[in-house]
């Protein structure tokens, strides 16, 4: 298939690479000319504007956006809606708030432009391991793009989860669960590190747990890698950012009156980390976010 990719950030460029390895043709656009130069060095076809991108794609066009949630995503969708024709498809693969997604879908439907929201998990490792894709929107549009999803995702790693907004909603809850899992690991390793009586080798413990224990996981593998590189995380500031999905998940739990004490507490712990907290668990959380998602790490010095 041939499609356009908009946004070549932490995940967008790797999505291009994986699609090309799978035999698809991609034409890309990013407002950052330096990023476009990286793409050009890899023989990825580039455009210098959205207008040029749309013009050079074959009809029934497919545009896949990987942009930060909020204004930049919304404005890009609206701009594209003025350039596209009936039957074209826009995909939002970012972490947009699902209610905004529903509003955008309504606006696009008035122009007969299909809109799929694709919750995308896999971080900076997606090129190698594939992406988990949670897809909302029109089922007919979804069916047309199954070859793309099969290329990007591992076996059984993608699916149509519901109507417009459902993909981003499912990804939001996924990220809320991720908050809780990371917090539990971080607190556990903080306890291990603080038990000075035993002089525990926490990097060895992480490796032991990764072979046969009930808490083994990809997150634990990343922890093992981090601790092998630097078991003290001395240069990592205990300042843990959040990208919004945890807040949205907790707000949804309030709206639905469904208790989420673990996810809520993990979100509050991130807030607490920003108040000159020096805990090892906060350091580990910050380093983990960088390891799997390429998120910024604040240095302690």
Provide a descriptive summary of the structure in words:
The protein is α/β, with parallel strands linked by helices and 301 residues long. The chain contains 14 helices and 8 strands. It has helices at residues 12-21, 33-41, 50-55, 71-81, 98-109, 126-129, 139-144, 146-152, 166-194, 202-209, 218-229, 245-256, 261-273, 280-293; strands spanning 2-6, 25-29, 45-46, 62-65, 89-92, 114-121, 132-137, 158-162. The protein has an 8-stranded mixed beta sheet, sandwiched between helices. Helix 9 (166-194) crosses helix 13, helix 9 (166-194) crosses helix 14 and helix 10 packs antiparallel against helix 11 (218-229).
Mean pLDDT score, rounded? 95
N-to-C order of helices and strands = EHEHEHEHEHEHEHHEHHHHHH
Helix tally equals 14
Low-confidence stretches: none
- If you compute it from the alpha carbons, what radius of gyration comes out, rounded to the nearest whole angstrom? 21 Å
According to DSSP, the number of beta strands is 8
| Major β-sheet profile | 8 strands, mixed
Task: Characterize this entry briefly.
With 301 residues, the protein is of the alpha/beta class. 51% of the residues lie in helices and 13% in strands.
Task: Lay out the secondary structure.
Layout: E1 2-6, H1 12-21, E2 25-29, H2 33-41, E3 45-46, H3 50-55, E4 62-65, H4 71-81, E5 89-92, H5 98-109, E6 114-121, H6 126-129, E7 132-137, H7 139-144, H8 146-152, E8 158-162, H9 166-194, H10 202-209, H11 218-229, H12 245-256, H13 261-273, H14 280-293
Parallel strand pairs: 1-2, 1-4, 2-3, 4-5, 5-6, 7-8
Antiparallel strand pairs: 6-7
Helix pairs in contact: 9-12, 9-13, 9-14, 10-11, 11-14
């Amino acid at each position: 298939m041939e499609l356009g990719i908009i946004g070549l950030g932490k995940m967008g460029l790797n999505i291009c690479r994986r699609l090309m390895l799978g035999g698809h043709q991609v034409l890309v656009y990013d407002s950052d000319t330096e990023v476009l130069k990286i793409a050009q060095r890899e023989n990825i076809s580039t455009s210098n504007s959205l207008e040029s991108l749309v013009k050079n794609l074959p009809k029934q066009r497919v545009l896949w956006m990987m942009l930060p949630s909020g204004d930049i995503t919304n404005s890009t969708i609206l701009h594209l809606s003025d350039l596209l024709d009936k039957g074209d498809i826009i995909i939002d693969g970012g972490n947009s708030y699902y209610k905004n997604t529903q509003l955008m879908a309504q606006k696009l439907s008035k122009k007969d432009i299909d809109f799929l929201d694709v919750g995308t998990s896999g971080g900076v490792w997606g090129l190698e391991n594939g992406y988990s894709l949670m897809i909302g929107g029109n089922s007919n549009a979804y069916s047309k793009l199954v070859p793309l999803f099969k290329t990007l995702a591992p076996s059984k790693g993608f699916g149509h989860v519901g109507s417009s907004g459902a993909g981003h909603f499912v990804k939001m809850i996924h990220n809320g669960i991720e908050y809780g899992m990371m917090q539990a690991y971080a607190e556990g390793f903080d306890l291990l590190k603080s038990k000075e009586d035993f002089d525990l080798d926490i990097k060895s413990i992480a490796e032991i747990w990764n072979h046969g224990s009930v808490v083994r996981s990809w997150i634990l593998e990343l922890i093992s890698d981090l601790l092998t590189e630097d078991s003290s995380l001395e240069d990592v500031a205990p300042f843990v950012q959040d990208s919004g999905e945890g807040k949205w998940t907790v707000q949804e739990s309030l709206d639905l009156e469904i208790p989420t004490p673990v996810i809520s507490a993990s979100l509050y712990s991130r807030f607490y980390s920003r108040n000159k907290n020096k805990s090892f668990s906060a350091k580990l959380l910050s380093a983990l976010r960088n390891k799997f998602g390429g998120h910024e790490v604040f240095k302690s010095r």
